[in-house]
Write a structure and sequence with these properties.
Oligomer: heterodimer
Largest sheet of chain B: 2 strands, antiparallel
Strand content of chain B: under 5%
Order of helices and strands of chain B: HHHEEHHHHHHHHHH
Helix content of chain B: 55-70%
Shape of chain B: elongated
Largest interface: A-B, 52 and 45 residues
Number of strands of chain A: 0
Strand content of chain A: under 5%
Order of helices and strands of chain A: HHHHHHHHHHHHH
Structural class of chain B: mainly alpha
Number of helices of chain B: 13
Radius of gyration of chain A: 25 Å
Number of helices of chain A: 13
Strand order of the largest sheet of chain B: 1-2
Chain lengths: 319, 319
């Protein structure tokens, strides 16, 4: 176990090094500099441009910029181009806004996907299975923003509530319940819509995993022993079928920072996805690179954690 | 590669399994119909004097609903719609939405196909090299530390760590807006799945007798990979390509929504939908028509791809 862990960590460190280079180069090798964001502005003379390039160190060689960038990122001194604010507190603040969406969304995904997937697998080729299959694929296939607009129109017309933003703007409800209800209404729609695709994808995985287990030899053995069907399915098959999903716990980590650009833009939610979108529009390199790098870093940590979890849960795997 | 003189080639078994899957067959039919529509659309809307002009601006006839009759008093006779009515209505410039949808069908289809084509080519080359030359060590001079397989799987891990949509958004926003850039960026960020499948497939094919026979006959390198190994790994490639086209069409529409899609005057279903969102209450057909069209086509590709996956997987096939 320990040698495996050491080797895995060593490999992940190499990946991280590559990731740091890729996230840096993606921005710097592409044509189009932050100074060109408004090329028609007559007040942007050549001298001014040069001054900005020096001020933001864009005239230094790439490897120097690379070194400076990551040194500052890790010492917390990195500042955004746009408003000269420190980048890390900015990202943390926005991540905190995205957090409720992430929690509610994840709970919804897990609560719906598992029962759906298991039932479809157990009743394979039944009417229920066919209908959920088509519905689930429809959820995967619909453009997220199209579904959101349909949802917004439906909710606004039916329940007469505001759903854009984190809370109703300009109205300060008093007492305990009104603000809570206001917050809840604003939270429900974006997290439900954000969870829709997740429910669809995860329930397909659960279904195919269950099918695989149900057609395996030990399930046949359990049936041959004359066990009742429920015991076979839910004690023998389900327990083994769910094993791989333990690894999903690790893969949840990147979700902490991976707020959805699309849904946060539609719902004017001041979360991390929206921060990234604004930073891209403003060519705010430090924020964009830091977001790409941190998201990839969390993914790497998540896969490492899920490998370890899988080994702890499944005694058959000893690398 | 599947011609068998006795007539029961593996291809036929796969086709039989596929045919039993009703949603997948319907998906295939819709996909074929979409090809026909896209080709008809290309013929009808291209050229200097197209039969149905998607770019004809008619200011008196702005935001007319579906089946509306043109305003004969104020629209010049030469700009009247060829069909006599606006089948799908008109947009905010009075352009015929039916003609725009026909034009967009071909553009959306080519975005999907070029992007996926690129991804599949990269995936096959990378996966093929990793599968065949896997244990070969690379390095400079005497220092031979890394095997080909380590390098390739490391690269795939790194690419998979990035939040794909945010990465695409970053690159597309920095590059000049053009349809080719979008295709290339989507292609360059979605080859990892194919590469993994091809690698895994070739690793298992390497041990088979026919590969040893080919080796004994003197096949090496490119010939071995291209003629003997890759054609036998075609199943998973086809599946991931089909699902990839669906994903690329969706990604293009999301990019359009954020303002980084295929730039005008080219119409794609994604940018018709994204432009329609401003008029969602006054002209809901500008949202509903392209949104539903995308849903149907992407759903068809997904059901078709899933049917292929089940048909190629012998364990799921026996039922």
């Amino acid at each position: 176990m320990l040698p495996f862990l050491a080797r895995a960590c060593w490999r992940k460190l190499w990946s991280l090094f590559l990731i740091s280079i890729v996230s840096f180069l993606v921005i710097h090798l592409a044509p189009g500099a932050p100074s060109q964001i408004d090329p028609l502005n007559p007040r942007f003379t050549k001298e001014q441009l040069a001054r900005y390039r020096t001020a933001f160190e864009l005239d230094r060689p790439l490897y120097v910029q690379y070194g400076l960038f990551y040194t500052r990122l890790f010492t917390g001194q990195l500042r955004a181009f746009k408003d000269n604010q420190p980048v890390l507190p900015k990202i943390l603040g926005r991540a905190w806004n995205s957090f409720p969406l992430f929690v509610v969304g994840t709970v919804l995904v897990w609560c719906f996907a598992f029962p759906l997937g298991i039932t479809s697998a157990v009743r394979r080729d039944s009417g229920f299975d066919r209908i959920t299959t088509v519905l689930v694929f429809a959820l995967i296939s619909i453009p997220g923003f199209y579904l959101s607009y349909l949802g917004i129109i439906f909710v606004v017309r039916t329940f007469q509530v505001d759903v854009i933003g984190m809370q109703t703007f300009g109205r300060d409800p008093t007492g305990f319940w009104p603000p809570v209800m206001d917050r809840t209404w604003h939270l429900v729609l974006p997290s439900l819509l954000g969870a829709a695709a997740g429910i669809a994808v995860l329930s397909r995985y659960v279904r195919s995993q269950m099918l695989e287990v149900i057609s395996s030899d030990y399930t046949r053995t359990a049936r041959a022993k004359g066990l009742p069907e429920d015991t076979v399915l839910y004690r023998h098959a389900l327990r083994n079928g769910l094993l791989p999903f333990v690894t999903m716990l690790g893969l949840l980590i990147p979700g902490l920072i991976g707020g959805s650009v699309i849904f946060e833009t539609i719902f004017a939610w001041p979360g991390i996805g929206r921060l990234g979108y604004e930073a891209i529009l403003a060519r705010d390199y430090p924020v964009v690179i830091a977001l790409n790098f941190i998201a990839a870093l969390l993914t790497v940590l998540g896969t490492l954690l899920s490998d370890v979890l899988y080994m702890l849960v499944d005694p058959r795997i000893r690398l | 590669m599947t011609t068998d003189p006795r007539g029961d080639a593996p291809g036929r078994a796969i086709w039989r399994a596929f045919r039993r899957n009703r949603p997948a067959v319907i998906g295939l039919a819709v996909v074929l119909a979409f090809f026909v529509v896209a080709l008809i659309g290309l013929v009808l809307t291209k050229g200097a004097h197209p039969i149905l002009d998607p770019r004809e601006v008619r200011l008196p006839d702005r935001l007319q609903g579906p089946f509306a009759r043109p305003n004969r008093a104020s629209v010049p006779a030469a700009s009247l719609p060829r069909l006599g009515i606006y089948l799908f209505g008109t947009d905010e410039l009075g352009r015929d939405v039916f003609a725009r949808m026909l034009e967009g069908a071909f553009v959306s289809l080519s975005v999907g196909f070029v992007a996926v084509g690129l991804a599949v080519v990269i995936g096959i080359v990378v996966g093929g090299l990793a599968g065949y030359y896997g244990p070969t060590r690379l390095g400079l001079g005497r220092l031979r530390l890394l095997t080909v397989d380590t390098v390739v799987t490391g690269l795939i891990d790194v690419m998979l760590s990035f939040p794909t949509f945010f990465l695409i958004l970053t690159v597309v926003a920095i590059l000049k807006p053009s349809i080719w850039n979008i295709m290339i960026v989507i292609g360059l960020t979605s080859w990892e799945g194919t590469a993994r499948f091809v690698r895994a497939e070739i690793l298992s094919l390497r041990e088979r007798e026919f590969v040893q026979a080919a080796q004994a006959a003197g096949a090496r390198g490119a010939r071995m990979i291209g003629v003997h190994l890759v054609p036998n790994a075609v199943g998973p490639v086809l599946v991931s390509a089909t699902l990839g086209v669906a994903g690329a069409i969706l990604t293009e529409s999301s990019l359009s929504f954020l303002g980084f899609g295929v730039p005008p005057p080219d119409a794609t279903w994604g940018n018709i939908l994204a432009d329609g969102k401003r008029f969602i209450f006054d002209a809901p057909w500008l949202t509903l028509i392209p949104g539903t069209a995308i849903l149907i086509v992407v759903l068809a590709f997904n059901l078709f791809g899933e049917g292929l996956r089940e048909a190629f997987n012998p364990r799921l096939r026996e039922g």
